[in-house]
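Components:
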Amino acid sequence: MKDTIPTAKTASRRPEPAARGGRPRRRKLTFDRVTFFLAFLGVPLAIFVIFVLIPFGQAIFWAMTDWRGFSPDYNFVGLDNFTKMFQDDIFLKALRNVALLAVFVPLVTLTLALGVAVAITLGGPSKGPVRGIRGASFYRIISFFPYVVPAIIVGLIWAQMYDPNAGLLNGVLTGLGLDRFDTFAWLGEKATAMPAVMFVIIWGLVGFYAVLFIAAIKGVPAELYEAARIDGAGRLRTTVSITLPAIRDSVQTAYIYLGIAALDAFVYVQAMVPNGGPDNSTLTISQRLFNVAFAKQQFGYATAMGVVLAVVTLVFAALVFLVNRLTGGGEGESKRKAPGSKARRAAAEGGAG
Amino acid sequence: MTIRAGSLDRRTLLRGAIATAAMGSFAAACSSPSSKDGDGGSGPKGEKSATNPFGVAANSTVEAAIFDGGYGTDYVDYTNQVLGSQVKGLEVQVKPVVDIAPQLQPRFVGGNPPDLIDNSGEDQIGFLGILDQLEELDDLFEANTYEGKKIADIVYPGVKTPGTFRDKFVALNYVMTVYGVWYSKTLFEENGWTPPKTWDEALDLGQQAKKKGKYLFVHGKEAATYYRTLLIDSAIKEGGDEVRLGLENLEKGCWSHPAIQGVIKVMETMVRQKMFVPGGSGTQFQKAQAIWSNDQKALLYPSGGWIENEMKKATKADFQMTGFPSMTLTDKPALPYESLRAAAGEPFIVPAQGKNPAGAKEVLRAMLSEKAAANFSKTKLAPTIVKGTVPADGYGSTALVSQTTMLEAAGTNIFNYMFVETYGMNTDQLVPWNSFLAGDLDGKGLTSALQKISDKVREDDSVDKVKVS
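Structure:
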């Protein structure tokens, strides 16, 4: 938090000339200023336009063609690709699957990550200063381990763990006397394939978000917790009423990043269930897109799927913002009465002071 | 206080970052078509002569993108040892590629494809999409080999067919692939079993296997459709050409043909009687194959002739891998028992826009030389399309010998079908096949799922169809 103070002061000074003179004073375009703008504004803006905005526009255009991908020839077909897509039962199934991923993966991951973070930062003895459980730094490092392993390797390792005949998971389960898991195909049964995939994604990501939350919680002033403790709040109550509101910006950001990762999930599913799983129960839009583009050579149609995926992603992000706003967070500064913003303000002030 | 401005800045930054990440999804749209600016085929030219039928420039190089799969890429590199003898200084530079279509797509669009491509593997480029960008290879078959014989005369019959699309011969399929059912001769002799000739015999064998605590078949999740190959092969033998043409032309109700249904029914019985190793639909296919070749928990495995090379490191000692033609349904099939699916595979294509198309053809001519073809069979244990390059002992490989034997026994009764590859249907078909072999879907459900996949392609106007007759 201390780092933000200088930035904040600079920012606050900016409108001053306008207030004094009634009109912003124009500064001379010195060589210094021009080069400064070019380097710090022009270059990033150019990169953004060339590599983000232009491909963005192009994708929308190609989504309305029947381009086959290997020659420069194509015809403009309007919205045909989109009408075809929403009559395609396999695509709709993929859409449903990524919706499931976007709902459950962030929810479970963040709940677990919050639990780990709270235990590590605040879960310690209730006497003396507020601190984490014993060996907190050890657990923090351990929980980060899976994130260090690249996603593709996580996927391949778990594909082996889930192997029905030689996998570690079934070996342990049958070893415990659960004979019904002998040769049980975790990734081959409709009921378990999707949960099994979700578990792996969550397993791989919890550590990172735990560390993120630990950093956020450390920015919350300890006085707040001490005050809550004096008032008799238990650990659960502190977590729900103090920690969560105080770090809600971090939670929102994490939710959106995780949602985007879950909507894609390509690496994990491709490593574990490359063909969409039993009855396509784990097929994702990105897998379908890949198959339509490279196996069926319908690049125009595949691009249309990419456009829909991007729209779904944006809608997801908008939903998260909306929910956060409605529950009293976000930028609703007028809603000062909301407990969330109060706590955050308190936290912010504490951090600054 | 000044906190507000500070936190707003941070939030704006985060939002920008999120928007950027969301837009990243658009990047999935891959590279876009650009204008045609390649001046293909205008590379250096040389004098045409008896030893240089395509007029390759001396000391030129050929860029070859070779699929790095079961056969590796060293056999193309090997041609460098023979190339120089006919065209001075010609050299082929091999680039191993696994994902052919995704890796080469931008180069096709950009108009600068490699000179020679082994368009094979799971991500091969569909031929119909690039047909008008490929060199026709008829002049290759008219040319003489390095030994001075006409190439068309030294190859197996019908090898042009799988490389011909809309009457254009554009792909030279180099490896002769024989499809059949594979078993361990040693294991069968120990137990007094014989390879089944009909599906009823296979059912009996399954019962005997169960008594020994073994299974009849095994399947892996990426290769469940090997049983589709077995099904279609048996059905074509039973019902003849009408089965094959129905499937190839995506006809209505083609999967309901009595010959197909007869085989599905037996398969369904086998699944229900637990003659398939359980859990296959959740097992990586090479691990599943090792259950057959190494653990010997399953007796039979339907596959192509590449299976021996693929499982080389995971095969039990003294396994004696041997193949036999797919089982027939009745004892009066339309085609004899010996008939089988065999096709030239590993399609080599020469893009017309490449820098040295003549050089690429010369490399293909070198690959068809006796020395290079024999080297392939010896190191890969698979026959090439060049006849008579496999000695009687098959370089010590029982699988190679049985492929040659099967081919000879079949004579002219060799068939092939391409609809799965042509329309890229394998991924879609894997889904019902995995469900069926796991016992979650009955024969009726499998039939309607497969029919639906065929119907969908037939009714999609944006897909070019190939009429097969």
